[in-house]
Design goal:
CATH topology of the largest domain: Ribosomal Protein L25, Chain P
CATH architecture of the largest domain: Beta Barrel
Pfam families: Ribosomal_L25p (PF01386), Ribosomal_TL5_C (PF14693)
Strand content: 35-45%
Number of strands: 13
Mean pLDDT: 87
Protein name: Large ribosomal subunit protein bL25
GO molecular function, one term: 5S rRNA binding
Strand order of the largest sheet: 1-3-2-6-5-4
Helix content: 10-25%
Order of helices and strands: EHEEHEEEEHEEEEEEH
CATH class of the largest domain: Mainly Beta
Family: Belongs to the bacterial ribosomal protein bL25 family. CTC subfamily.
Structural class: alpha+beta
Radius of gyration: 24 Å
Number of helices: 4
Subunit structure: Part of the 50S ribosomal subunit; part of the 5S rRNA/L5/L18/L25 subcomplex. Contacts the 5S rRNA. Binds to the 5S rRNA independently of L5 and L18.
Largest sheet: 6 strands, mixed, barrel
Length: about 210
Amino acid sequence: MAKEIPDLVAEARAGTGKGAARQARREGKVPGIVYGDGKEPQPIQIEFNSLLTKLRAGRFMSTLWNLKVEGQDDVRVICRGVQRDVVKDLPTHIDFMRLHRNTRVNLFIHVQFENHEEAPGLKRGGTLVVVRPEVELVVTASDIPEQITVDLTGKQIGDTIHINDVVLPAGVKPTIDRNFVIANIAAPSGLRSADNEEAAEEEAAAEA
């Protein structure tokens, strides 16, 4: 299932240059430009508070957006730059790049864990420790996975789940080359305490 692409509402902006940009800011908008995909650059403006909320939510520049401008066809874009006020650190201009359906982009995709009841380690009281709830992947703009799935069947206490243990959709690959950890099954606190006490007793006996 393809991942739902969030909407980003903007307005077409009349004119370019510093004067037009200043006028947009006076009206409570952030001026911007949309370029790429072999088409003419399109000046836009986005409502300041809406944009600021999305920026502060994180992952803005690694999110694929469905740009909606009244009177125009929706277009998929990714942010390629945010200019900010040097004093207030607030957005003053924003650049977006149009994406073709076959464009490859880096996006953070949610990790879903399933079959908890089939994991002996969890049945024994172990805890699933999620190291990466999202993984940055290289995906095609026309086919973004909703999530990647980790099967916990057969996982024991002490087991570690790496990215290479996950079956990724066709054409999808991690942005990081190394086999990084996604999650592990940690021992319950009581078992950890018992193990620590046993280790301490063995150490004391050895010293004696």
